[in-house]
Each structure stands twice: as structure tokens, then as C-alpha cells.
Amino acid sequence: MLLGFLLLIFLIAFPALVVAVVAFTRIPGDDCALNVTTPVTQTAHAIHWDYSPEHGPEHWASLTPDYATCGSGKLQSPINLRTSVGPKYELGRTLKNISMNNFQDVSTLVKNSFSNLVTVVHNGHTVQTSGVKGYFQYDSTWFELLQFHFHTPSEHQLDDNLQQAEIHFVHKSQSNNYLVIGVFVETADENPEYFKELLADFPKSEEEAAAIVHFNYTQLLQDVVGDNANYWMYSGSFTTPNCQEGVTWIVMNKKVKMTAKDIGALRNAMGKNNRPIQPLNERTVHMKSLPI
Ligand SMILES: *[C@@H]1O[C@H](CO)[C@@H](O)[C@H](O)[C@H]1NC(C)=O
Ligand SMILES: *[C@@H]1O[C@H](CO)[C@@H](O)[C@H](O)[C@H]1NC(C)=O
Ligand SMILES: *[C@@H]1O[C@H](CO)[C@@H](O)[C@H](O)[C@H]1NC(C)=O
What are 180's strand-pairing partners? Predict the structure, then answer.
């Protein structure tokens, strides 16, 4: 009788125990429910691209449909620039004069010790500076300077030659039109005053914290723009994924100076981060004036 009772209890309890054990082991093993969100967060992050043989410029277009323009676009950047007139390279008689008057460095209006502090980050692709309170007016449209960043060697070529480095000043208008001012870098014995802190302190890798440095944008403009800048202008794209087109490019004729040591330091930190030149296709490159 007692044995029968225990057997009854066992028969009731055992399936309950099995159910309990299965239920318990299922909770931490419930990966499927957790993993439902995994692909969502992966697409929310940018697809990995770089300048390597595996994920470099030749592959950008096929990494994701979002980057298709990198392969199919007909107005891509960078391109080769020429110092003489020829087919597709014309003197742009209607191009506007660009002088210091076209720029506003609002930081110079703020009279305190933070007025020209900027933030420099290494974002895995480039060394990028934000926080310059700069504006540029071209053909009665004002563009806000969002950031500037470095490429080693240059992305644009000059008469088929790469330059040591190139800086891109990325601007956006209120109607979301992009304009990038490209400035080549040439070697000098000393860094200009405005670059000294930035080149001494910039983060050398993506893991390194952002640097906060003084940077006087007006002084850089005095070097590359001056009273009447000579420049190339053409219609192009971002030189990094998603390679968006509709970008107005202005590449300055005057270069900024940097020591060979610091151009080397930028290159060590960023690697070779220049996209190869792209076909001109139906485009014309305009030159402000000659000699350029
Ligand atoms: C869920 O994701 C984790 C972590 O990425 C992984 O270890 C696990 O195998 C995945 N489970 C399933 C069922 O895909
Ligand atoms: C542009 O600059 C040139 C050379 O300095 C000058 O001769 C010309 O008058 C300027 N044009 C305008 C519209 O300011
Ligand atoms: C930047 O340099 C210009 C020209 O030398 C100077 O007038 C200006 O006061 C400087 N700006 C700051 C914030 O120091």
C-alpha cells in the first residue's frame, strides 16, 4: 500500500520534474529569441569597409546595396586634375572669385579661451577634426563646415601624380547640398602654427581617445585662399562609401605645409587611405585661371 502510494507520487512527480528541468534548461538556451535582434543591430551598424584587398575600393559596391553607387556612379571622386587646358579640362570663365571674404570663421568672434578648440578623432578610416565654427559662401549659397579629415597619399592627382597628402573640408548647405574643399599638402621644414597642436596630439589609432586642441582656421585660410584663390571645380562624389554624388568639389591650387615626419605620422596612423582616381566620363573640370 505504501509502495503503491510512493509509486503514484513518483508517476505524478517525474513528468513534472522532467517538464521543470526542460523548462529550466530552455531559458538560458533560448538563443533563438535573443538572436532575432542580432541581424537588426548588425544592419544598423555601418558595413565594414576599408582600403585592404578584401574590403577595399574594388569591393565597396558589392558590400551592400547601400554602396552600389561606388560601382555604378558616373560622377565619382577623386579624379586626375590638370594644370593645362585640354579635352574636358577648361578655363571656367564663369567661376566665381574666392577670397577670404567668402569665409567666416565664427570662432574668432567668440572671445574666450575655448574659442578655437576643436575635437580630433581617429574613426578607423581617417583622422577627423570637428568643431571648427566655419562657413563658406559660394555663388550666394552658404555652406557650413562639418569636419575636415586627412588622406595619405592624396586622393586627387595633379597631372597624373599623387601628392603627399590631402585634406578634405566637408561642407553642407541648408538645403543639404554638399561641397568639399580639397587642399593638397606639401612638405616643409616646419609645421605652420595652426597645425602644431593637432599634429602633436592627434589619436594614432581608433582605440585612442579624442584629442582637444587649439586650431586657428582663419590662419589656414590665409595660407590657401588669400586675396584671390586659384582652384579647380567639378561635380563629383564622396570618396568613401556610400560614394554619394551631387558633391561640388573645389580643389585649391595653393597647398598647405607639413613636415615630412608628421605626414609620415598621419600615414602610419591611418594607413594608405586614398581611393583610386575615377573616370571623368561626361564631366568637364573647370580651372579658375591659368597658370594654376
Ligand atoms: C545566438 O547568438 C549567440 C551569440 O552570438 C551565439 O553564441 C549562439 O550560437 C546563437 N544561437 C543561435 C541559435 O543562433
Ligand atoms: C576677380 O578677381 C580678378 C583678379 O583679381 C579681378 O580682376 C576681377 O575683377 C574679380 N572679379 C570680381 C567679380 O570680383
Ligand atoms: C586666429 O588668427 C587670426 C589671424 O591671425 C586672429 O586674428 C584671430 O584672433 C585668431 N583667432 C583666435 C581665436 O585666436
Answer: 170, 249
